[in-house]
Amino acid sequence: MNQQIIIKIFEKFKQNNPNPKSELSAPNDYTFCISVLLSAQTTDKSVNKVTEELFKIADTPEKILGIGEDKLKNYIKSLGFFNVKAKNIMLLSKFLVEKYQSNIPNKREELEKLPGIGRKSANVILNRIFNFNFIGVDTHVLRVSNRIGLTTCETPMKVEQDLIKIVPIEFHKNASDWLVLHGRYVCVARKPKCSECFLKEFCKFATSSNL
Ligand code: SF4
Question: 44 catalytic, yes or no?
Answer without folding.
Answer: no
